[in-house]
Predict the 3D structure of the following.
Amino acid sequence: MLSKSKFILGQQCHKSLWLSINGIKPTNPMDESSKDRLRAGDQVGDVAKELFPDGLEIEYLGSDFQKMCDITSNAIEAGETTLYEASFIEKGVFIRVDIMNKTSKGWDVYEVKSSSSLRSYHQEDASLQWCVLQAVKGLKLNDTYVVTLNNKYEKDGDINPATLFTKHLLTDYVIRNQFEIENQLEDIKLVSISNNEPEIIIGPQCKKPHACEYLDRCWPKSTKEINSVFNLYRLNLDKKLAFYNQGIISFEQIKSDTKLSLTQQNQIKANEIKEPIINQSKIQDFINSVEYPISYFDFETFTDAIPLFDGQKPHMQMPFQYSLHIQKDAESNIDSDIEHFEFIASTKEDPRRVIAESMLQNIPKSGSIMAYNQSFEKNCIKSLAVHCPDISKELLALNNRFIDLIDPFRSGGYYHHEFKGSFSIKRVLPAICPNDKKLDYKNLDINNGLMALSAYKKMRNLSSDERISMRKKLFDYCWLDTYAMYAIYSKLLEIVKT
């Protein structure tokens, strides 16, 4: 028996569906951020019920699908007009409908999503649902909707479901789509019962609309090699696959007349000679723009699908932590006189005011504020300024002092073959500062921003001792982000002096 999720998976890739149905262990299992999104989906679904309050929820009974369907049928016969998680089996497909509400014209069907916009696979989900419901004897349908979060909603007091959500009427679309859905359903059913693993060549379906959990099972190891066309800087997936389908996998196989950007040319050359490509003048131009004292600065943020605080929007980036290393002059070094400040907000209150005030207190009144990919930090500060109008002038003044440490790399000042087509700090740092254990993110329990986000949200439900432990892990991670910037900048200074 198929579920909606299995059908959507089969639409994306028959092979992935077959592997999942046959219990093959994923090579690329769902990460913590993806699990967070699922949890957010459950939360959004619960709040959406308030659009039609006082409904009857059909309890989830695990694999006892028929019993859930029987309870649903009995509820409809008893005259219930609003159902949550109504369950049906038709055409070999089991579905649970987020919300069903009976009108004078028939049942309206609502599928709730935690995203802030309507996606194509949402439409397919609704289409399959309609296909199944149409086959239910005696069930008269009226309209079907996909419900998403309203990204313009701003919490002000209690959550107002009527304005928090946007309803997308899809009845006409799903009716037009039924013929295609029926055909796909038959194909997917055949795949699901087949004894043979489908042979599918790699393609866009491996990463769109969702990253495949079996990616490494299908993609050759050669696609991960340092000289793989799949690592070419800012080459979109379609072009990478076009190379691959022509038998071009490595840099050496790229034809000499292929049009490439300067960075891509540097990437290929650096890989060939196994030496960094350095343009000292571009590095010097960047260094000349830096003013002491240097404030190496980094935010960590969290998001909530359902806003917790007044002035918060769905999925809004909310700064909760920062790290700040201050280098007073060129002679200052990390082992002696470089100051460090750090801050993590309480999980029980809106972090924006306290983090804004702490920043203004600790960041020097002059000198450059250095970030890595500065647009993120500057956008966070803009948001803080909106939330704190009385100190907005001081906050926005900080943005005028930002410089971006990624610039000398993006501009062609320095390219190392170990960058593998990326200028992220986690690629640049080990290449430009190798063999330094203090600079190794792998030694940390929390080693990326998504893990930090997840950890902070988990802290809301931890004991006091557990929160202390988690705070230390968060501090360690954010500290390394700003220390890494100091280390990278120090290396750039060494390069121009040689």
Summary: The first helix runs from residue 4 to 12.
